[in-house]
């Protein structure tokens, strides 16, 4: 039985005041009892230390939205895995479609980031997904397979056991256009099968595969009911405590 994981990707929103307001709202709504699912928030870098202290004693876990794969050095503007650890992060989103498209991240760079994150004790939330053009061409499965093979190249079963995969069809991110539960389930099942072939049936059976792409309080329950959907990576709807709490309750 896989425990559902709901993660909120704050993207480039929320200064320190807004961070405190949102986290206090979430803490109040969740309380300190053990939730039936794992809850992760991924604020921008500037809010991580504040978030880490506000979340002490809470069941809400902390993640970052990106990192660089080098240990340290002259990489102006970048943040290392060790820095994220020292700021209190347990998770890090890697390979989000906005990183892939706007910042030109390749599968090779994403692979290096995943390896560095794991080596530093961070759990990667590894994002994959096809564009609308790729879906319309009928090559969704090939695209997902390549992203998985290249992103996870050189990793062993023990490594993959620590990774969360987020299936995020690019055409559904921030567009209000969600994959139907059937479309999402089909992609998730395919991803689980690829993991089974590449690693082992046991790894495939345990790995958490989140869906992301315009998840909202009114569509979360249907998506989360699907057999191979183990949670959600939420963008827009995680910025208000009420809507994020409602999605958490659906899980
Ligand atoms: C995301 O940023 O990963 C995302 C899924 O965004 P949204 O929920 O706004 O589509």
Q: Superfamily at the CATH H level?
A: Aldolase class I
Please describe the biggest sheet, giving its number of strands, its sense, and whether it closes into a barrel.
Answer: 8 strands, parallel, barrel
Number of helices: 12
Name the poorly predicted regions.
Answer: none
CATH topology: TIM Barrel
Content of β-strand: 5-15%
Q: What is the share of helical residues?
A: 40-55%
The total strand number stands at 8
Describe the structure using short key phrases:
binds phosphoenolpyruvate; TIM Barrel; 8-stranded parallel β-barrel; alpha/beta
Topology:
Elements: E1 5-9, H1 16-30, E2 38-42, H2 48-54, E3 61-64, H3 81-86, E4 91-94, H4 97-102, H5 107-119, E5 123-128, H6 132-136, H7 140-151, H8 157-160, E6 164-167, H9 181-198, H10 201-206, E7 208-212, H11 220-224, E8 231-234, H12 241-250
Parallel strand pairs: 1-2, 1-8, 2-3, 3-4, 4-5, 5-6, 6-7, 7-8
Helix pairs in contact: 1-12, 7-9
The site of phosphoenolpyruvate has 15 residues, from strand 8.
Protein architecture, described:
The chain is an alpha/beta fold and 251 residues long. The chain has a single domain (4-250), classed as Aldolase class I (TIM Barrel, Alpha-Beta Barrel), CATH 3.20.20.70. It is 43% helix and 15% strand. The protein has an eight-stranded parallel barrel, surrounded by five helices. The chain is globular and about 45 Å long. The site of phosphoenolpyruvate has 15 residues, from strand 8.
